[in-house]
Amino acid sequence: MELSRELQERANAVIADPHYSGPNLSQKALIAIEAPFGVGKSTITDQAISMLAERGIKAGVVGSTMTRKRRPNDPENYTTDVDPEVIIERAERGEMINVTQNTTGHLYATGFESVPYDVNIGPFLPDALAKLKLAKFGIVKSFYLVTTPEQWQKQLDMDKRLSQPDAARRIEEAENSLEYAINKLAHPDGGTPLQLIVNDGSREIKQLAGHLLYATGYTEFEPSINKKVSVVEGKRLLHQMYNYATMLQPDDKAA
What we know:
Layout: H1 5-16, E1 29-34, H2 41-53, E2 59-61, E3 64-66, E4 78-79, H3 84-92, E5 96-101, E6 107-111, E7 119-122, H4 126-132, E8 139-146, H5 149-159, H6 167-186, E9 195-198, H7 205-216, H8 231-245
Parallel strand pairs: 1-7, 1-8, 2-7, 3-4, 8-9
Antiparallel strand pairs: 3-6, 5-6
Helix pairs in contact: 1-3, 2-7, 6-8
């Protein structure tokens, strides 16, 4: 997607200098789950939301407003195919918590209406997460979900992700995401350290969600299931996934 010069300049301005005119977010939690497509972000998100609901905690998926077309697995509260000027104008009025632009040129935004829960969980681009931290949520935590290439391919086959029309673009996004995670581990730059969760099929999703929630500060979840992944093991898996991503190809059925 390519914006006109005038729109691109305005988009750059709101991305570089966000301001907020919405409600105070200090009583809300934000949990970001980063990972390439097909690793299990939606599955672990749904499980965590269910576990919180069982304890009377209002939780849900973060909504999003974006210029790209809708994908088959997008949550209901994703608003797609939005005119970029609409997003930019809302951001200029302070109605967006964040606006980011990915390598395709598409704009992704999070409005105050997108985080109505006590605990808001969802996938985010790395740049978006950095901006969301400035919005002063009471809790902000981020996790990166990794798996083995074998488990990843199994999930991609199950969901037929490589047969979808945007498969080539998703593979490119996966490479970028994994490269970011590798660089983040190698160069923490004094920021929030990358916390890894391994979804390799050896543990139930409930255990993985418990790990995430316990690490976020919800101590009522059983700590015995929260074994940390070593940095060495995390780097190994990330490099394996990145190498595998460079070899992934869309199925012939993909448009």
